[in-house]
Amino acid sequence: MTLLDTHNHFGSQTPFSKAANQSITVDGVSFAYRDVGPKTGVPLVVFNHWGAVLDNFDPGIIDGLAKKRRVITTDYRGIGGSEGSAPLTVGEMADDAISLIRALGVDKADLLGFSLGGFVAQDIALKAPERVRRLILTGTGPAGGTGIDRVGPVSWPLMIKGLLTLRDPKFYLFFTSTANGRQAASAFLKRLKERQQDRDKGPTPRALLRQLKAIRAWGKQAPQDLARLRAPTLIVNGDSDIMVPTVNSVALSNRIPDAQLIIYPDAGHGGIFQHHADFVAKALAFLEA
Q: Which GO terms describe its molecular function (predicted)?
């Protein structure tokens, strides 16, 4: 692995598009991750959506956060550069994440979860509260939440539409169909292409289907006692999320003690990508509060 020259146009910060691919073995399984930003303070560990690999993290968000915070991004088991078989439950993904955080020598972390990553982050915070300082839950919902078990039926037609229109399905799945939404979708998908070399490998169909089973199981699972969550929590979504309906963000904010809620207007599942600069500012303010 080559260590990149960090003295570039980011000052002393390596941009996410140039961050080295790293790996760490946890319980005999190699997990892929990237580690950017200052190596001081409480790290922010970020968990991503269904089918996401390292190159599906938005550089606009990661670079913005990494100006102030150490940001660790990772591939779930069985996807991208991580070995093994994709877990069939969110609980197993959370167990993996807790072991990974421990293996990286991190005692306490802040967590940022988007979509499936928000399910995982909640589960980590419930299982290992002593490891979690602050929690940011975006485009996500609680176990047993409204419509979460229907992510597949909602997604497949728009995935097919993506194939037919030669567009990334996220163009349709993450953004509204308004002029604002379309513009934001194009800008987001362009940012995802910033990295030219050492890109992560995409998900296999098998991993996608296994992760979808985990999402469906989360949607059918009994509700968790979110009143037990003691970590300060920020919840963010767009007002028109078709994948994890926005009512779930409202439910989270009602059930987690003292949670803060931000709902972006004319924004979908990917509201944080549409408003990435504003989201970074609000997330950093929340993490530093």
A: hydrolase activity
Rounded to 5, what percent of the chain is helix, strand, coil?
40, 15, 40
5 belongs to a structural domain: no
Neighbours of 89 (CB within 10 A): 16
- Residue 43's domain spans which residues? 16-288
CB contact at 8 A, 207 and 79: yes
Q: In sequence order, what E strands does 16-125 have?
A: 22-26, 29-36, 44-47, 71-74, 109-114
Tell me the pLDDT tens digit for each residue of 3-56: 444 434 445 689 999 999 999 999 999 999 999 999 999 999 999 999 999 999
Indicate if the alpha-carbon torsion angle 168, 170, 172, 173 is positive or negative.
Answer: positive
Q: Is residue 219 part of a domain?
A: yes
Q: Is residue 4 situated within a structural domain?
A: no
The domain total for the chain is 1
Reading the block at residue 112, the tokens are 């940022």
CATH number at residue 208: 3.40.50.1820
Spatial distance between the Cα atoms of 132 and 143, rounded to a whole number of angstroms: 19
Say how far apart CA 46 and CA 111 lie, in whole Å: 6
pTM here? 0.95
Q: What is the pLDDT of residues 61-115, one digit of tens each?
A: 999 999 999 999 999 999 999 999 999 999 999 999 999 999 999 999 999 999 9
The C-alpha atoms of residue 204 and residue 237 are separated, in whole angstroms, by 28
116: which 2 tokens? 């499936």
77 close to 96: Cβ distance less than 8 angstroms:
yes
